[in-house]
C-alpha cells in the first residue's frame, strides 16, 4: 500500500512539473516568435516615409497635412512652452513655428526600438530660415504608435543643441 501511495505521489509531482515546464516553454517561445516577426528595418523605413510627408508639408506651411501624421491623442512637447495635446492644438503650435520664420525642417532617424504596436525613435533635426541659413539643430525622442494601419506620432519631444540665448540686457 505504501509503495502504491509513493508511486501516485511521484506521478502527480512528475505530471505537475512537466505541465509547468511546457507552460513556461510555450510562453517563452511565443515571445521569441513575436520578436522574430517584427521587422525593425521596415519600421524605420515607414518612419522615414512619414517624416518626409511631415517635413514636406511643414516646409510648405501646410499645417493641416503636417498634423495628419500625429495620432488623435498625440502630444507635441516643444522646449520652453506647454505641451500641445491633440491635432488641433498641435496644428496651432506648428503654425506658430512657421509664422516665426521657420523655413526648412529636416529630420533624420538615428535608431528605433519597439514592436509592432509602439516604437521609440531617436532623431536628429535641423531648422533653417527662409533663406536657407541654419537657425537651430538638435535631437528628439518620439513615440510612434500604430493607428489605423499606419505609424502615427504619439509623443513628440525635442530640444536644441545650440546654447541658450542670453537674456536681454536689464534697463
TrEMBL record:
SUPFAM superfamilies reported in the protein's UniProt record: NTF2-like (SSF54427)
Pfam families found in the cross-reference section:
SnoaL_2 (PF12680)
Which interval of the chain is the signal sequence? none
Q: Which part of the chain is the SnoaL-like domain? A: 54-152
The superkingdom listed in its UniProt entry is: Bacteria
Question: What's this protein's name?
Answer: DUF4440 domain-containing protein
Protein species of origin: Flavobacterium ranwuense
Amino acid at each position: 500500500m505504501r509503495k502504491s501511495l509513493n508511486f501516485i505521489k511521484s506521478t502527480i509531482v512528475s505530471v505537475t512539473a512537466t505541465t509547468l515546464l511546457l507552460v513556461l516553454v510555450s510562453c517563452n517561445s511565443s515571445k521569441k516568435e513575436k520578436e522574430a516577426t517584427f521587422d525593425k528595418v521596415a519600421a524605420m523605413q515607414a518612419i522615414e516615409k512619414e517624416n518626409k510627408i511631415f517635413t514636406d508639408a511643414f516646409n510648405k506651411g501646410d499645417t493641416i497635412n503636417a498634423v495628419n501624421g500625429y495620432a488623435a491623442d498625440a502630444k507635441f512637447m516643444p522646449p520652453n512652452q506647454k505641451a500641445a495635446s491633440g491635432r488641433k492644438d498641435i496644428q496651432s503650435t506648428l503654425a506658430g513655428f512657421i509664422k516665426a520664420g521657420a523655413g526648412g525642417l529636416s529630420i533624420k532617424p538615428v535608431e528605433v526600438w519597439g514592436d509592432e504596436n509602439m516604437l521609440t525613435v531617436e532623431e536628429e533635426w535641423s531648422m533653417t530660415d527662409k533663406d536657407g541659413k541654419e537657425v537651430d539643430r538638435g535631437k528628439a525622442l518620439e513615440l510612434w504608435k500604430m493607428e489605423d494601419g499606419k505609424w502615427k506620432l504619439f509623443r513628440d519631444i525635442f530640444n536644441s543643441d545650440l546654447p541658450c540665448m542670453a537674456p536681454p540686457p536689464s534697463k
